[in-house]
Structures are given as structure tokens and as C-alpha cells.
């Protein structure tokens, strides 16, 4: 059961904004902040390659920070150890000024890699096993997955934004997991954040990251190597084929980042498949819980699962703490 419940903000795909102390102020601040950032961004358009992407990222960041502040406040009021650690990770994510020199250096190097990818003129051809990967014309659940060619800069725009990269980094630093699993490597940007955090926590932690597209997986390996992040295992192939063997070889899982196949049924199915392999206190991070109405509802249902002893909703990302002690 979730400790203290979730302070979920229900927008049009749920109900109305939650009433309560500070809510309207928060919301007003968000609108104001968004307006300001929008103004700044549009006035710099001449220097921005893809203004829509930057505006969307700024809006995403504002929503994320707004929720992260609220969740940090809620979690800080708890005596619970998991809640305290989550609150610490959120505080470190929000406050860039408190980054130590090592953290600042890693983030700078990763963001330089991102900037290079967003400028790249390369293209990659791969089989897309994601939610939109089936041949649209077929519209059948068992239709073949399509081979697709995409520009690296477009794929790079699907990576976790810098604030979510920081979150992964600080969660790993705070919880110090031995085995981390990622579903959805793509070009490896989120993997670099996780691997960098593992490198700063003694270097004994391990990251296994799964990617359907072989060409993408190979590129991710190159990017990790370029940053000197060794010891990450990038496994190529559809999750349905690769995940069972990975779970047999690497258990228990202490940290999981689910960022592939954004489909409500798939999200639940991956949780159920992973659940027997989670260590007590494992940290689970679900990305894009705001992507579609279905994903939002799937997250809200999942957050109530009795096997979770803590859940935090950052609007675009959901974080849970798994308990092996609950019998369902
Ligand atoms: C949003 S991207 C991951 C971005 C990456 N985590 C980052 O932030 O840098 C999702 C990736 O998951 C992969 N993917 C989606 N569904 C998959 C499946 N069923 N099996 C294997 N790979 C899948 C896609 O090929 C895509 O590269």
C-alpha cells in the first residue's frame, strides 16, 4: 500500500486540480513561469534549431519541477526511510546549485553528447518494437513490427530531458542499487546518466539496458564508450525475447527504469513480469506516465498496487518503492 497515498493532481484526463493548501498558488506560479519561459524562448528563436521541441521541453520541465517540489514536501513529512531518501533525491534533482564537482562534470559531458546528437545529420535504420511500431496498415495486434529509418536528431528528441536525467542520477546516488535494469535504451542518453551515477557510487553497481533496435543498441554502446562509461551491458532485441534471459542472469533487480513500449497494457505486463525479480526496496521509475490518457490511468492504478510501499507522481515520471513483504 502506498504510504500516505498519492497526492495526484487530476487534470482533464482525471478530474479537476486537487483542492488544498497551496494548490492554486502552485498552479498560478506554473502558468506564470511557463509564460515567461515561452516569451524568452520565442525571442531567441533565431538561435534555436527546433523551437517547438525547446518549448515542449521547457513546459515538461516546469510541470516536472512543480510536481517534484510538492512531492518533496509531502515525502519530507514522513518518518519513513524510503520517503526520506526519495525526498533527498528530489531535493538534489531540483537544486542544481548543490551539485558537487564530479556531478557537474558528468552532467556537462552528457549534455554535450546530447547537443551533438541533436545536431547530427546521421540516420539510423532499425526495427521499431514500440507502441507505434506495428505496421499501421495492418492494425492487428500480431502485425509485424516495421523497419524504420529515422534521423538521429529526431531520436535524440525522444530521450529523457536533462531534468529527468538528473532524477535518475540522483535516485541511483541516493539508493545505491547493485543491479539496475533499463527497458528502452535508444541512443543511450538515460543510460549515461545512470551509468555515471553508478561510477560515482564505487563503480560496483551494474546497468543492463535493453533495446529492440540493434543499430540503436550499437550506437548507445558507442556513446557510453565515448564517455568512458564501461561495464554497461546493452542487450539488443525485443523485450519479449530478451527480458526473460536477462532476469534469469541478473537478479534481484534493485533499480528499474521503464522507458520503452509506452502502452498501458504493456506497462502493467512488464511490472508483473519484473515483480518476482525485484529486491525488497527496489526503486522503479516509469517514464511518460503523462503520454496518453491510457498511460495516465495505468500509472494511477499501478501506484495503488499493494506491493508498493511508496509512490511519487512527478506528472511525467512515476517513482515507486517495491516491497517483497506484501503477500497478494
Ligand atoms: C523513449 S525511447 C528510450 C529513450 C531512452 N531511455 C533515453 O532516454 O535515452 C524507447 C525505446 O524503447 C525501444 N522499445 C520500445 N518497445 C520495445 C520493445 N517491446 N522491445 C524492445 N525495445 C523496445 C524503442 O526502440 C526505443 O528506442
Structure characterization notes:
This protein has 328 residues and is of the alpha/beta class. The protein folds into two domains: 75 residues, no CATH class; 165 residues, Rossmann fold (3-Layer(aba) Sandwich). 48% of the residues lie in helices and 16% in strands. The protein has eleven helices and nine strands. A seven-stranded mixed β-sheet has the order 5-4-3-6-7-9-8, with helices on both faces. The longest helix is centred in the N-terminal third of the chain and has 26 residues. The protein starts with 22 loop residues before the first helix and ends in a 6-residue tail after the last strand. 38% of the residues are buried.
Amino acid at each position: 500500500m502506498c504510504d500516505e497515498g498519492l497526492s495526484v493532481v487530476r487534470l482533464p484526463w482525471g478530474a479537476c486540480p486537487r483542492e488544498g493548501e497551496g494548490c492554486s498558488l502552485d498552479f498560478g506560479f506554473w502558468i506564470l513561469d511557463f509564460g515567461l519561459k515561452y516569451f524568452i524562448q520565442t525571442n531567441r528563436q533565431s538561435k534555436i534549431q527546433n523551437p517547438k521541441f525547446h518549448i515542449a521541453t521547457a513546459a515538461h520541465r516546469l510541470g516536472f519541477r512543480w510536481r517534484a517540489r510538492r512531492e518533496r514536501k509531502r515525502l519530507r513529512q514522513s518518518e519513513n526511510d524510503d520517503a526520506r531518501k526519495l525526498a533527498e533525491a528530489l531535493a538534489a534533482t531540483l537544486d542544481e546549485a548543490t551539485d558537487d564537482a564530479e556531478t557537474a562534470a558528468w552532467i556537462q559531458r552528457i549534455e554535450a553528447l546530447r547537443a551533438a546528437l541533436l545536431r547530427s545529420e546521421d540516420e539510423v535504420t532499425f526495427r521499431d518494437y514500440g507502441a507505434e511500431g506495428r505496421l499501421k496498415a495492418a492494425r492487428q495486434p500480431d502485425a509485424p513490427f516495421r523497419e524504420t529509418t529515422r534521423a538521429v536528431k529526431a531520436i535524440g528528441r525522444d530521450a529523457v530531458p536533462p531534468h529527468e536525467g538528473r532524477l535518475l542520477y540522483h535516485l541511483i546516488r541516493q539508493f545505491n542499487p547493485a543491479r539496475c535494469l533499463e527497458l528502452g535504451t535508444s541512443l543511450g542518453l538515460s543510460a549515461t546518466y545512470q551509468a555515471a551515477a553508478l561510477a560515482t557510487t564505487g563503480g560496483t553497481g551494474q546497468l543492463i539496458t535493453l533495446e529492440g533496435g540493434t543499430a540503436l543498441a550499437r550506437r548507445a554502446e558507442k556513446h557510453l564508450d565515448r564517455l568512458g562509461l564501461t561495464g554497461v551491458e546493452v542487450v539488443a532485441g525485443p523485450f519479449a525475447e530478451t527480458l526473460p534471459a536477462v532476469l534469469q542472469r541478473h537478479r534481484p533487480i534493485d533499480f528499474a527504469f521503464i522507458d520503452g513500449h509506452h502502452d498501458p497494457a504493456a506497462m502493467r505486463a512488464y511490472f508483473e513480469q519484473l515483480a518476482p525479480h525485484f529486491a525488497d526496496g527496489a526503486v522503479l521509475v516509469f517514464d511518460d506516465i503523462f503520454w496518453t490518457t491510457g498511460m495516465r490511468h495505468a500509472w494511477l492504478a499501478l501506484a495503488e498496487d499493494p506491493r508498493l510501499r511508496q509512490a511519487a507522481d512527478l506528472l511525467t515520471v512515476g517513482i515507486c518503492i517495491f516491497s517483497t513483504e506484501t503477500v497478494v
